Protein: glycogen phosphorylase
Organism: Aurantimonas marianensis
Amino acid sequence: MSPIDPFLPRRRIAYFSMEIALRPEMHTYSGGLGVLAGDTARSCADLELPMVFLTLASREGYLRQEIDGDGRQVDHADPWDLADWATPLDAMVAVRIEGRAVWVRPWLYVLTCPVGHAIPVLLLDTRLEHNDPVDRAISDRLYGGDEAYRLKQEILLGVGGMRILHALGFDIETYHLNEGHAALLAAGLLREHRHPSDRPSDGALRYDADRVRERCVFTTHTPVEAGHDRFDYEDAERLLGDFLPLDQMKLLAGPDRLNMTRLALNLSGYVNGVAMRHAETARRMFPGYGIRAVTNGVHAPTWTHPAFVRLFQEIAPDWGHDPEELLGADQLSDDAVWTAHQEAKGDLLAEIQPLAGVAMRPDVPVIAFARRMTGYKRPDLLFTDLERLRAINRTHPFQVVMAGKAHPRDEGGKALIAEIHAHMRSLAGDIPMAFLPNYDMTLAKKLVAGADVWLNTPLPPYEASGTSGMKAALNGVLNLSVLDGWWIEAWVEGVTGWAIGQDDQRHEDDAQDLYDKLERTVLPLYHADRGRWIRMMKDSISKIGSRFNSQRMMRRYASEAYLR
Ligand SMILES: *Cc1c(COP(=O)(O)O)cnc(C)c1O
């Protein structure tokens, strides 16, 4: 008997994602998209949804970030041992890439939730002796290499993934495409549905796309046109061969370049953005498609500090399964909440000391900013006016901790990391500051629980949703954020957190607004009115934790997208 057998009978939905954050030791993710996919899988296990997950093995990981003496990011591979966590299955399929047969082997990782339900995750691996050495590396490095490498990975995920499911004996009704990376899966399904009429006119689709649309759900995460995967048709033809006739592909994926988002949009019967504002933006970007909104959520038990787990357990024993019960968290006692918070903060400060050599104080607020380091997230906004920062700190002391990786090819993001280090050095004598290297799930858990204020300064409308602020809120860490993504839905000024600036088109003044809000509202409240601060912590847990969780998110996908 194969270890996959027990899972075969009840799996009707397959979820495809280029990255999934299953556990910190498995380097199969880079950031938000993967963590969301991981939280999705964890909630599916909790809720016993009949799903199977597919991703790449990513044996070389995404990026281990080192910061050198000059504050520059140094990129390293981040290998991990697949055999420590997953079991190879004895099915294999071949996918034709660049004219060669590339063999793919699935590894099984079983994700088990606290009450014992389990979800199968298939990790696709091409590191096989049968393969040409070039092809062995296809599944190795997440988002590594050039455009051709990326397209090969997408062929592996979409086409290879579909064939693997078939070879293993899964009977899948619905395919969920997490972002456009797996769009070729939908194109592969199309091949199975040639149009019934014999000779449709020229320039028409010779396949029955409606049949495919019934089976595909597509979640888009990218609010800017330039952020979508696009490939030259020359590359596509060279790598994919006659997978789908070029004229047919152009009808579905755009006339000039193979646009994976277009392909997924045209072949999915249910399409959604990841927050209400993001869905509006996506509808403007892609008119004519009915794009819904399912706002992201986080897996509450994964992101809640053990000290708060104990508190929640007392007032709502089922909160892990039904995080709506966290509504009752506003009834917790002030002392209990503050004690739990100081314990989480102590854990973070104990981490900062050895990593950054900075001793931070437990009685001074910690402002945290942890994001992918890239232009639109504006990680340097806080440093717009160093004199102003020093002045604020003199009347209302604070401390700053930051973390985040820049994509290896994002030179702008890397420059931002170096700049931030330079700013931190010049402020060092006045304001305690630390940049913690190699932001990952483990570090994220410490940061989202141990900070006092969770800062977010993206340039709207580029933040599709954001999820780290939801993790912070679960731990009573207060959000201070620009109005974009999920925060527009969760923000109640002075109750669940604070806004930076207005919800409008002008963002030149965001730095001023940030300083004003810190100086007049946030820091004075922390230092002078602890009672109201704790009131906000409790409102944040109860109003945000009860809604922005992946249990609610998956119940919505199940009822609206999967059971159409
Ligand atoms: C939650 C998380 C993210 C996503 O956070 P954003 O709010 O979207 O910036 C990224 N990386 C890690 C490691 C996380 O845990």
